[in-house]
Write a structure and sequence with these properties.
By secondary structure, this protein is α/β, with parallel strands linked by helices. The chain has 13 helices and 14 strands. The protein is globular, with a radius of gyration of 21 Å.
Length: 347
């Protein structure tokens, strides 16, 4: 088959994963799916937000610039011209709710959403549903949420789960080394829960009072939208001002996996409705137990996994004392950590 992927988020090509550049989860999944479909003998073209100099072919997949978005061509002039004029078997359009608003020369169009369905997006969805053969979501929870908010029959929605590149986790770290290091990891977007860890009186302040050997490492990727910049900078300042927090910045996939392999625990106090959570999958592959809030698709992703759930408090907010107690219990009862470590690897 001739398959086209439209991926309008962070710019990437077939060399990004192997480079020192960071990449978001949706773009990562598109890269791996394109690579694997090419490996299976399909002709694959990926349109990404790259410049001309970054175009090329990797692992049999062609990477092309989607062009300049405009009012006339909101999805990029080059992609839209290609989609209208070039006969292909399948176009997989990621995230943009209007990617199939115009007629296309493809036989099948699949809209691949990695985001929560939002009511304000319904008018944009309405412009493309006539030209969509199926919708792809990343979890069963996500499928139900998309069907409910957009009023779409569930039979039209298909789950394609995220996954893990196991080659990034081949250099196993001895469990005793992971336990001795006593570092926690946070790898999600900052607005999804970092404030509960690093704000004044947060989890890390409370841990500092009880055990100064426990530290937090915070990783992020370079995708700060203007309206979030002030909030992000406040969080980075809070990280920098705490003696038990290390800000790692934007890491490549290899560097991030190395930190995950050495981590003692992954902590995720959150109210954010995750639709999948690739980080949780990767931490399981690294054998790192997770302490998290049981929100949205997280219980599905971490079903039968190495996880300790912390229910929200009576006020509906993450129970920060509960997270502190859970971390300290992993310190005081190594057998409990070992049990979750084993289950994580099995998951």
């Amino acid at each position: 088959m001739n398959i086209v992927f439209y991926v309008p988020g962070m710019p990437f090509n077939g060399d990004t994963i192997a480079s020192d550049r960071s990449l978001g989860g949706a773009e990562t999944s598109a890269y791996y799916l394109a690579r694997e479909m090419s490996t299976r003998g399909h002709a694959v073209t990926v349109f990404s937000a790259i410049g001309d100099a970054e175009q090329g072919e990797w692992d049999g997949a062609k990477y092309m610039s989607l062009g300049n978005p405009s009012q006339q061509n909101p999805c990029g002039d080059r992609f839209e011209q290609y989609a209208i004029s070039t006969p292909v078997d399948v176009i997989v359009g990621q995230r943009a709710p209007n990617v199939f608003a115009k007629p296309t020369a493809s036989k099948i169009n699949l809209w691949w959403t990695h985001d929560l369905a939002l009511k304000r997006v319904i008018p944009h969805m309405a412009t493309q549903l006539w030209n969509v053969n199926g919708i792809l979501t990343v979890s069963e929870w996500h499928k139900r949420q998309v069907a409910d908010v957009y009023g779409i029959t569930p039979e039209m929605i298909h789950v394609i789960r995220n996954g893990v590149d196991r080659s990034l986790f081949e250099n196993a770290v001895d469990p005793s080394v992971k336990q001795a290091g006593r570092w926690l990891m946070y790898t999600s977007r900052p607005e999804r829960g970092l404030q509960y860890l690093v704000a004044s009186g947060g989890v890390m302040d409370r841990l500092w009072e009880k055990d100064k050997t426990i530290c937090l490492k915070v990783a992020a990727y370079e995708n700060t939208i203007p309206q979030m910049r002030q909030f992000y900078e406040a969080l980075w300042n809070q990280c920098a001002s705490r003696p038990n927090v290390e800000l790692l910045g934007a890491l490549s996939k290899r560097a991030l996996s190395d930190h995950m392999m050495g981590a003692w625990l992954h902590v995720y106090p959150t109210l954010f409705e995750e639709v999948s959570c690739i980080s949780a999958m990767e931490e399981q592959c690294a054998g790192t137990p997770i302490i998290a809030s049981p929100v949205a698709a997280l219980p599905e992703t971490l079903n039968n996994a190495g996880v300790m759930w912390i229910q929200s408090g009576a006020d509906g907010q993450p129970d920060l004392d509960g997270f502190v107690k859970a971390v300290l219990s992993m310190r005081d009862y190594p057998a409990k950590w070992n049990g979750l470590h084993t289950v994580a690897l099995a998951k």
